[in-house]
Amino acid sequence: MISKKTTRLLTLACLTLGLTSQAFSQEVGASPEFIQALTSEWKGERFPDGRPKVSDSILERLKNISIEEAWGVLRNKGYNNQYEGDWQLIWPEEAMTGRVVTAQYMPLRPDYQNQIKTQGVDKEGRSPKGGTNSWPIDILTNGDIYVADGYGKIADGTLIGDNLGNSIYAKSQRGVIFYGSVRDQEGLSEIKGFNAWHKGQDPSFIREMMLTSINAPIRIGRATVLPGDVVLAKKYGVIFIPAHLVEDLVITSEITGLRDEFGHQRLREKKYLAGQIDSEWTEEIKKDFLNWLENYPGKLPMTKAELDNYFKERNW
User: Does the UniProt entry include the keyword Transferase (predicted)?
Assistant: First the structure.
């Protein structure tokens, strides 16, 4: 019979072997299986790398949603840490939406960087030329947004200049969101369609930094970000939206916008008092709103089926 002490030692040995195996199999880029596990609440189509494939039409509609509306929907669902503000932008008046590719950077540690380079080049087939800060760019596809945690480093923390900026835009038709800095913002501003949300710009080159992961969870200021999240970036801040919530967020925010438009119009017409619009609506106001939607002077942002389903599944 095996003693309890022997059983404990065997268990400890198994755990140690398991941890050792995991350590040696650690990848720079997350596997599709890992990303699928992280985003298991998404039930739709996925990219080959495992990230949720939110539709282009939803990304386009999301541009018209305000930061406040998006933030409110997420807060109501218990997602309280998805916003980061206080950014510098190249084009402040331009909104950007897209699907997240994450990258994490840390202060340079030579032995760890050697392991990263060996793993990335020899086992994952990444480019041996140039810096590892090009690796996240190599995997971008149309509609992706490169989101990097550069731990707020400005001088010697410039993750891209205009050369890499051109490559990013050519692959993704989008820009970047860096909790860090960029170099040659003048050159970046000449890339038509490219935009960047960053914490600063500096003429220095990247030094004493190393890439540690691609498409793993990262922190961007106040926000926790997963690969495949959807970005809503405006001059008022950036919201990182879990993929499984984005369609509901868009339709809910669109309805909220229409309710506000209706309420403002009726207040200007002096049909209702401010207190009536600001409090729970009476059946009379609800009916008036639905009639107003039926005769909306323009194209509604959602389909009739989406509108009907929204009111079918929700209480006012």
Answer: no
Q: Which pLDDT score, from 0 to 100, does residue 25 have?
A: 52
**DSSP SS3 for 34:** helix
Residue whose entry in the numeric block shows the structure tokens 């490169």? 146
> How large a percentage of the chain has pLDDT more than 70?
91
Cα(99)–Cα(52) distance, integer angstroms: 8
Q: How many residues can be counted in the chain?
A: 316
196/4 Cα distance (integer angstroms):
60
Annotated domain spans of the chain: 56-242, 247-313
Q: What is the DSSP letter of 234?
A: E
Bridge partners for 155 per DSSP: none
> Residue 260: which pLDDT band, with cuts at 50, 70 and 90?
very high
CA atoms within 13 A on the CB side of 236: 10
Given a cut of 90, whether residue 130 has pLDDT beyond it is: no
Of the candidates 83, 64, 58, which has an alpha carbon nearest to the alpha carbon of residue 243? 58
The tens digit of pLDDT for each residue in 139-157 reads 999 999 999 999 999 999 9
| DSSP E strand stretches across the chain | 83-84, 88-89, 96-107, 144-149, 176-179, 181-182, 196-198, 200-201, 209-214, 218-220, 223-225, 230-234, 237-241
**50 Cβ partners below 8 Å, 6+ apart?**
30, 31, 32, 33, 34, 35, 36, 39, 227, 228
Residue 296 has pLDDT above 70, yes or no: yes
Please give the model's pTM, rounded to 2 decimal places: 0.87
- Strands 237-241, 83-84: pairing is antiparallel
Q: What average pLDDT does the structure give for the chain?
A: 92
Q: What is the pLDDT of residues 204-241, one digit of tens each?
A: 999 999 999 999 999 999 999 999 999 999 999 999 99
- Contact (Cβ atoms closer than 8 angstroms) between residue 220 and residue 86: no
- Hey, what CATH topology would domain 56-242 get? Glucose Oxidase; domain 1 (3.50.30)
Residue 134, class by beta-carbon neighbours within 10 Å (0-12 exposed, 13-18 middle, 19+ buried)? middle
